[in-house]
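Let us work through a complete example step by step.
Step 1: write down the sequence.
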Amino acid sequence: MCRWLAYSGRSVPLEAVLFQPEHSLIDQSLNARLGHTTTNGDGFGVGWYGRHSELPFRYRCLHPAWSDTNLREAARAVRAPLFVAHVRAATGTPTQETNCHPFRFGRWLFAHNGLIREYPLLRRDLMMSVAPHLFRWIEGSTDSEVMFFLALTFGLERDPQGALEQMAGLIEEVGRRHDVASPLNMTVCVTDGQQIVAARYSSERDSRSLFHSTSFRQLRALYPEDPRIIAAGDDAFLVLSEPLIDVQGVWEEIPEATILVARGGQIQQRCFEPRLPDMNIAQRA
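Step 2: predict the structure and record it as tokens.
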């Protein structure tokens, strides 16, 4: 389907995560091991937070990540303390730049792996649930972008977990009304530059893969001379679709129906429980 990752820690060159590891995200764009598709070549995107701007920067392209020489050059030059990257395998919507992740609104970035089943059937009802003041900012045609704007409608900026749970609950309710079995499958990531929030959930309880790093201190002990690990710092954190290196104990799988919040070196995991939103409140927000 897709592969994505999010990093927080000390500022590091993007290439330290995107290109240099044995099973980097760029390698996963060609050779995904745990995805439903081996190749993820329908575009890519990177969003990052810089020192001199409150708003995130973004680079997206509809070409395969492995063939984009500009991405390789940018990844050498850009350093950031928090970034999100995504390689796309399309699920029925066009290969175009506006359909590439991460999606952006204000300080927020959003990336998704998975799908809304029978999306053309559910699309109108879901899009009509987006708050009117947000609707004009939808640029593309993917189910993922609509998921993001539904979460914004339900208060993502105030309560990320509650907003994502309401987004999931609405999708399941609309699917039920249209007799769509197991309408939602997702791993998602949202960030405002201060925290990374990631959720793994599917209606059928068989979600796409999702992992997080356990300890960069442990990595530093294993690879004491690796400058990338030293530069990242002991509080660095990664959440990602697939591990970047094959080392036992470095990665922990995020359980089904779980949401993770990482901020300032602290990680919390909680149950993810979809629920119906109060549409009257959401539309007034």
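Step 3: interpret the result. DSSP finds ten helices and 13 strands in the chain.
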